[in-house]
Amino acid sequence: MELNLAGQNCFWINEPLLRGEIGGDPAFGSWKNWGGYKTWLAPQSRWPDPNAQSEAMDNVEWDVLSHSEAEIELRGPIIPWSGLRLGRRLSLAADEPKVRARESMTNAGAEPQTWAVWAVAQFPVPGWAVYPAEGARRALAPPARSFDGDRLRFVGDSKWKTGALVSEGWGEYRADSWRWTFRAAFAPHASLPHPDDCNLETWSNSAPGYMELEWLGPLVTLEPGESWEWGTEWAIAV
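Request: output the structure for the sequence above.
Response:
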């Protein structure tokens, strides 16, 4: 939930919820959205209720498999409605402001399953997201928003979503209050099928106001016992 640089958290966190003052985030009804960074399964259309975040996937305790000063490896519980288990390894880069994140999904069920890894980072608004120049942009949750070149403005006053299938494999966000830019670099797999036909997405939320920079892996079919891993890198550019 925290990516701290010079005493400032880059991620948005739901401070009233942490203080016990409110119950949830209207984006998903009664969902307890603590903020920070999350890993979900995509597509959302195959969740038990696509309009409600699943407590069995999001607000659950993960096991710590190993940890050191520079790395931690985590494993989530089996998600009952999918039979999959998510995993994550976070590593700090030496002498530079970077984090390497390796996400995994494992089929712990008895039947083949087809899903994609969905990485979601939440940030404060107002600010600007930047997309690669190539890749057709799509309005995933209307109304469509106009780009200023390759940039998209977020102010947290309404809900909408935009995405693209990019071959360069990166996305950026810079809040107005920052002196730096957050950049997520990922293996794009642009030639493979993806949820929403996108591997980079941005979501605007209101009440509370925040934005999401999201990057998605391809749809992967896993036989029972099989796993798939996907490496990404977060960089802070001053």
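The chain is about 0% helix and 45% strand.
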